[in-house]
Amino acid sequence: MKPGRQPAASILSATCGLLMVGVVGIGSHGPVLVAAASALVAVLAGTVFRPVATLAVLLTVGVIALSDPAATLTAVSGLSAAIYLVLRHAAGSGVGLDSVSGATLVGAVGFAFAGVVATAFPLQVPWLPLLAPLAAFAVYLVATWPFLRN
Q: Which residue has better confidence, 144 or 99?
């Protein structure tokens, strides 16, 4: 074992990666099954080569796009993906479980909850996506406001 490796973070990241793929890939067939199997192989390869972990998440997004699972399954997969990436990239750097702060977990769970709530209300407003860039810019201004005031 390399010095600085964190076995607990590696095991938890692999578990979250398997959950990420499994929750949206179980029961699939055809091209979705191929994409899910590819994502699963990428999760396993990501335990050795950290950059492959990002590919595993992207392949899981492909599984979600092809299979159109329920919003709650997608939220669980996304939450698992966030924790998987945080732990996977921290396991090899020697930081390990210390990288998973309360703020990281609150942010990940908060965005997953917001996504589930947003899908609960089927709005039929065709111009709503036009507000997304303005909303992103407003969030950017709020986040950088303390630094811009100097």
A: 144
What's the whole-model pTM score?
0.75
Would you kindly state where each structural domain of the chain is located, as residue ranges? 7-148
Query: Cβ atoms within 10 A of the Cβ of 57, count?
Result: 24
Which 8-state DSSP code applies to residue 96? G
- Helix ranges (H only) for 26-150 are 31-46, 51-67, 71-91, 102-120, 132-148
Find, among 12, 11, 42, the residue nearest to 1 by Cα. 11
Using a 10 angstrom Cβ sphere, with 0-12 exposed, 13-18 middle and 19 or more buried, the burial of residue 65 is: exposed
User: Distance between CA atoms of 64 and 78, rounded to whole angstroms?
Assistant: 10
Say what percent of the chain tops pLDDT 90.
Answer: 37
**Angle subtended by helix axes 71-91 and 7-25, to nearest 10:** 160
Least Cα distance to 84 among 17, 8, 11 occurs for: 17
In sequence order, what are the residues at sequence separation of 6 or more whose Cβ sits closer than 8 angstroms to the Cβ of residue 23? 69, 73, 76, 77, 80
CA pseudo-torsion sign 87, 53, 133, 116:
negative
